[in-house]
Every structure is written in structure tokens, then in C-alpha cells.
Amino acid sequence: MKNLKFILLAFVFPLALNSVAQQKPALTWKDVSKWSYNRGSTLSPDGQWMAWASGPTEGDLKLTIRKTLDTLSYNYQIGATASFATFSKDSKFAAFKVSAKDAEAKAAKKTMKPTYDKLLLVSLADNKQTTFEKVRNFYFSGDVANWIAIQFAPLETVAKDKDAAKGTDVLLYNLVTKKSFNIGNVLELAFNKTGDLLAYTIDANGQNGNGIFIRDMKTGLTTALDNDKAVYKSINWNEEGTAFALLKSNKNEKYKDDVFSVIGISKINGEQTAKVIYNGIDDASFPKTMGINTNASPYWSDDQSTLFFGINTLAKKDDKKTTDSLTKAKKPDAKADSLAKTVKPEPKKEDIEKT
Asked: Considering its fold, how many domains does the chain have in total?
């Protein structure tokens, strides 16, 4: 009889479990959007703070900044797009973007209305917050962590054609004094490692005043290193922050595409700063039908005696017949645009300028 009871119990127990399991609704794809999880994490330079974003797969998120050695934490609503905090080098400040809320973003998408990010700057000592509207990007200065550079989004009315100016306003905000300085029509900017120098390029309407500039963040003195009816881009500081290189593009009637030059800036000293410009067009030793690559950032050698850059095809407007005949005569072994070359320019006197 006991054996029979055990057999019945063993038979009924699985049936009971199965009945309980059947009471839970099955998961659907709609449930996935409600799942909440963390998105990445950032550690402050001194290791005292950690930040991460969390929230549902679809919906509004929050960003948490917490002390690593105790329970102190701050929470911020950051909208529907995940944002990651950036810490200043001295770990006294954190900054992150705040996007439109999920409902606002969906409504704007239906009406084709643009949405803009805000920037929230937080003092970690007291959680004091400063907000900046319509921000495209931001950068803390380097080791001398007194500044944050904030680049704003372009206006809705700005021209959007290929050759239209792409520069926008940049605000230099002093984290200590709270004073700010505005620079207009900035295309690119980059602090050096120490944060005492800021290099930036201007791209204005009609290319008026376009150039590469350097600002001494201690004195506020700004020097124009090169000006031209051209587009300047790809600023690349060396590791020590004592020199940098960039690209410059000019229209040229002889060529189908813009002709790029590499610019090397070194021995930075205001108006006495050394500059070299090189495009290879008039250099007999430079590969024919080639020009400087627009997609590779140039850089200095460690001793600042050599500039490194990539090369790419550069076709002349009247080279079609010649190119076709050469193609028929011999098929190339490799694509020209895959080439890269290290060049040590030996520019003529007129190629070296002191600004």
C-alpha cells in the first residue's frame, strides 16, 4: 500500500508543476523592449567614481554616477539614447549628453522635426549641474583640467549642400572661474596632452577667414598659423603635445577632385611657430597620378623631422584618354587607392613658411 502511495505521489507531483508552469504567460517579442540592463561603464581617472547608463531596451534611460568606495551615488535622466559620462582629468567634473525622451523622439520622427542633445556638466563634489542646449560634442582639456570645449549643433536654417560651410560655434568654458569665450565657425578642435594649447580649424561661409589656429589657454592669445580659401581638417597632435599635423584641401582646375596638402606644425611659439606644407604635385619624386589620401590622418615622427601620410589616386580633368589607353595596355595588379606611402618631404624654401 505504501509503495502505491509513493507511485501516485511521483505521478501527481510533475502534473502539479506542469500546471503551475502553464499559468505563466509565454514571453513575446514585445517583452524584449521592457527588459532593463546596464550599458557600459566609465571609471574616473583617479578611480574614485564609476558611471553607467541603464534602462529598458526601448524607453527612457538613466545615468548613474557612484563612488567606488562608498554608497554615494547620483542619478540623472538622459532620454532615450544611451550616453556615457566623460570625466575631467582631475576627476572633479563629469559631463554627458541628454537626448530627447522616448515619446518626444517618436513624435519628432513622425513630423520630421530635428531633436537636439543637451550637455549636462556636473561638479562631483556637490552635484552642482550646468546645462548647455543643442550640443554636438564636447571635450575636456588635458592634464591642465580647467576647461571644457563645447561644440554646438548647426542651426536648422544652415545650408546643407556639399560645399556649404560646416563650422559651428564653440564655447570655451572655464571650470574654475565659470567664465566663457565663444569661437565661431569651428569645424574641428583638439587640445594637446597637457591641455595648455588648443588647435582648431575655421570653416566659414565663402571660406572667408578659413584656416588653422592655435590658442594658448593660459594667456588667451590666438595665432593664425595658415589661412586660405580651403578646408582644413584631421588635426592630429603628437603624443607629447608639442607638434601636430593636419590636412588642407583646395580646389584645383587641373584636377577632378580637391587637391590635399599635408601641414606640419612644430616648434610652437606664437608667430615664430614652424610650418611646412606639402602636396607632392610639383615633386618629381612623388608617384605620378597620385595625391595625398583624404581619409588618413597625417602625423609627425618622434623627432619631428618626418611627416607620415597616406596617398591615393588623383586624376586630372584631361587625363581620361590617357587613363583609358593605359588601362587597355596593362591591367593594374592592385587598386591604386589601397596604396600608402611614408614620405619625408624636402620642401623648397617657398614651401616652408613662418607664421
From this structure: 2
- pLDDT tens column, 220-256: 999 999 999 999 999 999 999 999 999 999 999 999 9
- Summarize pLDDT for 154-209 with one digit per residue, the tens: 988 787 788 899 999 999 999 999 999 999 999 999 999 999 999 999 999 999 99
26 lies in some domain: no
User: Distance between CA atoms of 137 and 149, rounded to whole angstroms?
Assistant: 8
Q: Are residues 212 and 333 in the same domain?
A: yes
C-alpha cell of residue 227: 589661412
Integer CA distances (angstroms), 295 to 46, 288, 291, 299, 311, in order:
35, 19, 12, 13, 9
Q: Mark which of 69, 104, 135 sits at the end of a domain.
A: 135
Q: Which residues pair with 54 in a beta bridge?
A: 38, 62
> Three-class SS of residue 176?
coil
- Residue 219 placed within a domain: yes
